[in-house]
Specification:
Blueprint (H helix, E strand, L loop, with lengths): L1 H24 L6 E5 L6 H17 L3 E5 L6 H8 L7 E6 H10 L8 H4 E10 L1 E6 L9 H10 L4 E5 L5 H12 L5 E5 L3 H11 L4 E5 H9 L3 E7 L25 E8 L4 H16 L1 H9 L3 E2 L5 H21 L7
Parallel strand pairs: 1-2, 1-3, 6-7, 6-8
Antiparallel strand pairs: 3-10, 4-10, 4-11, 5-8, 5-9
């Protein structure tokens, strides 16, 4: 009888243990922290919050956005790679933070980026405008007029960007090179797109490449002029704004992306579950409508494995670009 009691207790304990393990294994079972390497209000922040809203509806668990701007994403990446690889700390980054920074600032990283970070999925492509401010009666209304102004006023055209080595920095530097080695002055702003917008509104900067999501409101309000759009085609909401190709600069400008990343070592079942939920979130009518309003293109990877190939390809492409266009960055 005693042996039977022990056997029953053991069976109950095993059953309870299995239930607890099952509950523990269910992903996600509690809120997820999503690190965004920029201040609130920019394209990357907007993307993270749209995905997070729909993710919570699907899984019942929130994605808590934590903004950690600075050092072109180094601070955010470092926090990510030091986090437990359990799927509960993620990062939504972009071209600058997750492909250019690992190349330009490799010596500043105490870890191997390629072995420490894993891509979950691409999320969206983000078109950009080549903008001119209307502050202080800045006159250029076309790309040609902007180039002519720069040629007639060497060193006086100030362009804004979100930091040395960022893709908007590369874009404008490459634009200046292709337009005839224009003598222009960069004005970095550590507060991301929102900081560059303030520089343009004050007239401290006269031009910049900025994503459509963060700048469209000021274009519509007449504060900025959209001289051209970096996209495959003209935008439906801006039919009179030519593409950079139509403006005579077919290979200038970056159609940026936002992607989701996790610490390397995150279990494959967790990555797959995360990918499935995020893909479902991106496909929801609510997310689709919000991204359309921002002029973002929803472009999820086909799988977690496909995301790894995508990230490797991006790193290879930017290795080529950073070798061709030399920009001084502090190490």
């Amino acid at each position: 009888m005693k042996r039977l009691g022990v056997t029953l207790l053991s069976a109950v304990a095993l059953a309870l243990g299995a239930q607890a393990a099952s509950a523990q294994d269910k992903y996600p079972s509690h809120p997820i922290k999503v690190i965004v390497p920029y201040a609130p209000g920019g394209a990357t922040d907007i993307t993270a919050r749209i995905v997070g809203d729909e993710f919570q509806k699907i899984t019942g668990q929130p994605m808590v956005v934590v903004n950690k701007p600075g050092a072109n994403g180094l601070l955010a990446i470092e926090e990510l790679v030091k986090s437990p690889p359990d799927g509960y700390t993620l990062m939504v980054g972009n071209v600058t933070t997750n492909t250019i920074t690992p190349i330009l600032y490799k010596s500043k990283m105490s870890y191997d980026y390629g072995k420490s970070v894993v891509a979950v999925t691409n999320l969206v492509d983000v078109p950009a405008f080549l903008l001119a401010t209307t502050a202080n009666d800045f006159a250029p209304k076309t790309v040609k007029e902007l180039v002519d102004y720069a040629k007639k006023n060497p060193g006086k055209l100030v362009y804004g960007h979100v930091g040395p080595g960022s893709y908007p920095h590369y874009d404008f530097a490459y634009f200046a090179k292709k337009a005839g080695d224009l003598d222009v002055a960069p004005l970095p702003n550590k507060n991301g797109a929102s900081g560059v917008i303030q520089d343009l509104l004050r007239g401290d900067a006269q031009a910049a490449f900025l994503n459509t999501g963060s700048s469209a409101g000021n274009v519509q309000a007449g504060k900025f002029r959209a001289l051209a759009v970096v996209n495959h085609t003209r935008l439906a909401d801006y039919p009179n704004v030519p593409t950079m190709k139509e403006a005579g600069f077919p290979d200038v400008g970056t159609i940026a992306w936002n992607g989701m990343f996790a610490p390397a070592g995150t279990p494959k079942p967790v990555l797959d579950a995360l990918y499935a939920a995020v893909s479902k979130a991106l496909a929801s009518p609510e997310a689709q409508a919000k991204f359309k309003k921002q002029n973002y293109n929803v472009v999820p990877s086909k799988s977690v494995d496909d995301a790894q190939k995508w990230l490797a390809g991006e790193l290879k492409q930017w290795q080529t670009i950073t070798s061709a266009v030399k920009i001084e960055v502090s190490q």
